[in-house]
Amino acid sequence: MHLDKNDPGTTGKTLPRLAKAVLGTFLLFGIGGVAMAQNMVMRSTGPSASSYPAGKKMANDAKISLKAQDQVTVLTKSGTRVFKGPGTFSLVQNSGSATSASRRLSSFISNRGSSRARTGAVRAAGAVAIETPHNPNLWFLDVTKGGKFCVADADALVVWRPDYTGSATASIVEPVNGNVTEIAWRKGSALKAWPKDELPVATGTNYRLLGSNVAQSVEVNFVVLQNQPTDLDDAASMLIENGCSGQLDLLVDTLNLNGGDTADQG
Fold this sequence. Notes:
The protein is α+β, with helices and mostly antiparallel strands and 266 residues long.
């Protein structure tokens, strides 16, 4: 991923701010990995969901009792584990790659645009499936996703688009007066600085986005974090507490990439 200096609305001053923001996040979480103090429930569905709410911390020797149709996703030091009922499960597991989750999250957050996740065709069993690029950073605003969005740095918000095979634009509509601000991506560019001078970012502000290559508009509601997370526990907790479910899903999905999750089924 790269941010083109020639993109309309992107200035020479914006580039250093964006680079510093992403690099700052990289340094914040550390080069060697991300701390994980204890197990945390990330998702929970089914009859027992109220017993395992998102954000619940669990000791390493804790047991999970599930009924039929229950499914609980827990973030551990070695990655994510999915428990499916019915049955009783223990969080204790053999020592495996305890740093695998840290490496994946560190790479996810420290991505500074040196590589590109391209859309491509994958052939399997005679069929061709199109792979969708994965958002490379927890703090990049996906132009196709709505809902609450947690902002780590309001002065350096970046808008990301999944499909950057061609040029594209996005219209940002203010809900009160209906004013429209347009941003544009050049062909091959996936990142664009949010126009913060025209559209301030603050907790409680919301805007409607419509990308030229997106089927429908989405409404984004911003939550500016007062304190930046210092480790994986903090990041997950802040996303859960502020209702930023899209980023929480992205965090879990990123950990699950390349077989990072294990399933326990009764």
